[in-house]
Amino acid sequence: MIKPEDYLLLMFSMKGIGKRVDLKHVKEKVSRDLKKISDEETKKILDNLVAQNFLEEVNGLYGITKKGKEFFAERIKEIETELRKVNEPWVIVYKAKQYYPFVADTVLEFCKNRFVGFYCLFTEKRFFRRDFRGKKIVLNSVKDLMFFINIHYIDVIPCVHRIGVNRPDWLVVDIDPGPKVDFEQTKEVARVTYKIFEKLELNPAIKFSGSRGFQIWSLIKDFEMPEEYQPLVLRGESKREKNYFSLFSDFVRIIQREVDKEIPKITTSEISRKEEREDKILLDSASMK
After folding, report:
1. For position 206, which CATH number holds?
2. Which residue, 32, 74, 227, 241, has most beta carbons within 10 Å?
3. pLDDT tens, 267-279?
4. What are phi and psi of 44, to 5 degrees?
């Protein structure tokens, strides 16, 4: 069972050095996730953490210290599984904040001259958004990226086309397993899909996505639309427009067919009828728009 002290070190470490909250805020979070707790009990726990120099108190507001942050970075290795049972979104956000400073420059290369979206994660809600305060999101610097990470926008997803360009240059296959699919099967599908990209000399990059999925990305050089191309006819859909977005979406469907040849009857490219693919892995073309 997680101790309140460990829970609070997670909370304060997630917020970071310089961010402070009052006793009422701390009490509300502990009472929500662990157990009902009084003001006196909350104060006693906080005072104990201050005495160990893990937290500091300034005018009734509490925040993590450098020592506390370093201590928790080691402590979480022992208790992460139990912490996830208490508040998994906090653990994910905490780890995202440790991760992104190391990969920020690489991430920005993928986001250059593009609008981006974020998967946002909070304790009681999670959602996807492409705008902030009424404007499309653009990342021009590490500072921009970390601003959004620090407000729980934890997974950055660049648009597949550049700003002002009405055609994609990223080909993206989103590998999305149904709830009845084993993770080992998902990994095998990701491996086979990656190999198909390599066979086609598409120079793929693989990305872990969500809680159980993967994405495979490939930057495609500009090319002329093949005259003979006609969009595939999809079940339940009207005639599709002939354009690069349709072409890239159909290419995802063709890749799925190639995967099916190597691993039969486990993948699909049919987005509709979700209830029919609970035991399938969707190779989703929805990113191609």
Report:
1. 3.30.70.3300
2. 32
3. 999 876 777 789 9
4. -65, -45
Residue ranges making up the domain that contains 115: 97-158
Backbone torsions φ then ψ of 254, nearest 5 degrees: -65, -40
C-alpha 66/C-alpha 170 separation (Å) is 41
CA distance 9 to 72: 6
* The last residue of a domain, from among 86, 111, 126: 86
Task: Show the 3-state SS of 171-222.
Answer: EEEEEEECCCCCHHHHHHHHHHHHHHHHHCCCCCEEEEECCCEEEEEEECCC
Euclidean distance between CA atoms 259 and 266, whole angstroms: 9
Let me know whether 234 and 196 are in one domain: yes
pLDDT at 78 over 90: yes
Beta-strand relationship, 281-284 and 267-268: parallel
SS (H, E, C) the chain: CCCHHHHHHHHHHHHCCCCCEEHHHHHHHHHHHCCCCCHHHHHHHHHHHHHCCCEEEECCEEEECHHHHHHHHHHHHHHHHHHHHHHHHHHHHHHHHHHHHHHHHHHHHHHCCCEEEEEEECCCCEEEECEECCEEEECCCHHHHHHHHCCCEEEEEECCCCCCCCCCCEEEEEEEECCCCCHHHHHHHHHHHHHHHHHCCCCCEEEEECCCEEEEEEECCCCCCCCCCCCCCCCCCCCCCCCHHHHHHHHHHHHHHHHHHHCCCCEECCCCCHHHHCCCEEEECCCCC
